[in-house]
Design goal:
Elements (H helix, E strand, L loop, with lengths): L5 H9 L17 H21 L4 E7 L7 E7 L8 E9 H5 L3 H12 L5 E9 L6 H11 L5 E4 L1 H9 L2 H12 L4 H9 L5 H17 L3 E3 H5 L2 H8 L8 H14 L3 E3 L6 E4 L5 H14 L6 H8 L5
Parallel strand pairs: 3-4, 4-5
Antiparallel strand pairs: 1-2, 2-3, 6-8, 7-8
Helix pairs in contact: 2-7, 7-14, 8-13, 9-12, 9-13, 9-14
């Protein structure tokens, strides 16, 4: 909804996905200053950039490190004055940090120091560690801050997908959140009420090509050999056939549903019936204008926005 604040959006995105515990072993390789902080700062910048496309906001992100905080996100709405500046603070803890015997004492001391930060609105403690190895320590940290309404501990299973999430997924999630009652988005989902994920992916794929290339006729061979489309199919949990067989079946189903037409003379090309995909085309064009996407990176955004493979 349009009234969502920066804090509400950050909270939403930081717990959008949850990874299996074994994936968080990757955090053993992440160094605090060399990887965790630059990645965290980059994700916050991506979120604020996308947020600003829907609701004007003045913001900056930077590290301070001397007041119990690794990264601060300062923000206020454009109609507000600088005196109304709000601050969201982030303290990240690496695997090596939690191997320290004084880990809990250090975290508590840093949070106490953070209260010196003017305008502090909320404090995130992001645990970037092996969830299995430090299971008990994660529980202790969560228990320590459970009653504080201005502190949120982000467990490794949420921290990992948040930090590795692609820009296109952030943009798509913000679009769905702010425009979830938008008539064009609703009509696009109605358009894609098809039985198989591959059919939905093909409609979005062909529509993205139509919007970015200005053509609706496609060689069947180029579709069958597109690595992005094949990669999408490999991510569909309920697809058990080989790619070639599944996509052939899905294309025929789209013919039956009147989305495409085969060239009956050769059988080697097809035509997208563009009048059937106008809402999907409108969303793709919106992303090109709003986020300046090009033909190479529009497809991951469109798949994420329209919940194909999510």
């Amino acid at each position: 909804m349009r009234g969502d604040s920066v804090l509400e959006i950050v909270k939403l995105l930081i717990r959008q996905d949850k990874s299996p515990a074994d994936i968080t072993r990757e955090f053993r390789k992440w160094k605090h200053d060399d990887r965790i902080l630059p990645t965290l700062t980059g994700q916050l910048e991506t979120i604020l950039y996308a947020y600003n496309k829907f609701q004007p906001v003045v913001y900056d992100t930077q590290g301070i490190r001397d007041d119990g905080v690794d990264v601060v996100l300062r923000h206020h709405n454009k109609e507000e004055t600088a005196d109304e500046l709000k601050v969201i603070a982030f303290q990240a803890k690496s695997y090596n940090d939690l191997c320290n015997t004084n880990y809990l004492k250090d975290i508590k001391a840093q949070y106490s120091d953070s209260r010196k930060v003017a305008g502090l609105e909320y404090y995130f403690i992001i645990l970037c560690t092996d969830a299995d190895k430090h299971r008990n320590k994660v529980r202790q940290i969560c228990a320590e801050f459970r009653s504080d309404t201005k502190v949120e501990v982000i467990e490794p299973a949420y921290a990992y997908p948040f930090l590795v999430r692609t820009e296109s997924r952030v943009h798509a999630r913000l679009k769905r959140n702010f425009d979830k009652r938008d008539v064009v988005l609703e009509k696009a989902f109605e358009t894609l009420r098809l039985s198989a994920p591959g059919e939905r992916a093909l409609v979005v794929y062909l529509t993205s090509k139509y919007v970015t290339q200005g053509r609706s006729d496609f060689k069947l061979e180029s579709i069958m050999q597109d690595p992005h489309l094949e990669g999408a199919y490999q991510g569909f949990k309920d697809v058990v056939q080989e790619f070639d067989f599944q996509i052939t079946e899905d294309l025929q189903n789209l013919v039956n549903a009147s989305f495409i037409e085969f060239d009956v003379s050769t059988g080697e090309s097809l035509r997208l019936r563009t009048e059937c995909v106008r809402p999907v085309a409108a969303l793709i064009m919106d992303a090109i204008v709003r986020y300046e996407y090009d033909a190479d990176n529009i497809l991951p955004y469109a798949f994420s926005l329209l919940e194909i493979g999510d």
